[in-house]
Design brief:
Largest sheet: 2 strands, antiparallel
Helix content: over 70%
Number of strands: 2
Number of domains: 3
Radius of gyration: 34 Å
Strand content: 5-15%
Order of helices and strands: EEHHHHH
Oligomer: single chain
Length: about 130
C-alpha cells in the first residue's frame, strides 16, 4: 500500500495527492485564466448586492474567489454612473445627426442649383464661346 499524506482536508492516499499535484502543475504551466462575460458578472454582483446571496455563498456557487467577486463589485459600483451618462451622450449624438442631415440637405440643394445654372449658362452662350 502506498503512503498516506495528511493535509487540512484530511488524510488522502498518495496516488490521489500525486494526481492532484500533477493536475495543478499542468494548469500552472498552461497559465490560462477563466474569463466571464459581462452579463454573468452583473448577474452575480446583483445577487450579492440585492441580498439574494451572500458573497461567500455566491463564491461557492459559481466557483469564484472572494477577491474576484470583491473586484467585480467595486468595478460595478464605480461604473454604475456611466449608465446614466450614456443617455446624455445619445442626446448629443442625436443633435449632431440632425445637424449633419440639415447640412446634407443644404449641400444637395446647392448642387441642384449649380447644375441648373450650368445647364442654363451652356444654353445661352453662343457656340463659339463655349
Amino acid at each position: 500500500m502506498r503512503g498516506v499524506v495528511s493535509n487540512c482536508s484530511g488524510p488522502q492516499s498518495l496516488d490521489t495527492y500525486e494526481s492532484r499535484t500533477r493536475m495543478v502543475q499542468t494548469r500552472s504551466t498552461m497559465a490560462k485564466y477563466r474569463t466571464f462575460p459581462p452579463e454573468f458578472k452583473a448577474k452575480v454582483v446583483l445577487e450579492v448586492l440585492t441580498g439574494a446571496k451572500s458573497g461567500a455563498q455566491a463564491s461557492r456557487d459559481y466557483h469564484i474567489k472572494d477577491s474576484v467577486l470583491s473586484r467585480w463589485k467595486q468595478e460595478f459600483l464605480l461604473d454604475a454612473a456611466k449608465v446614466f451618462q450614456h443617455q446624455d451622450g445619445s442626446q448629443d449624438a442625436e443633435r449632431r445627426i440632425a445637424e449633419l442631415e440639415r447640412l446634407v440637405g443644404r449641400l444637395t440643394l446647392q448642387l441642384e442649383i449649380a447644375k441648373k445654372a450650368s445647364a442654363l449658362a451652356s444654353r445661352t452662350l453662343p457656340p463659339n464661346e463655349r
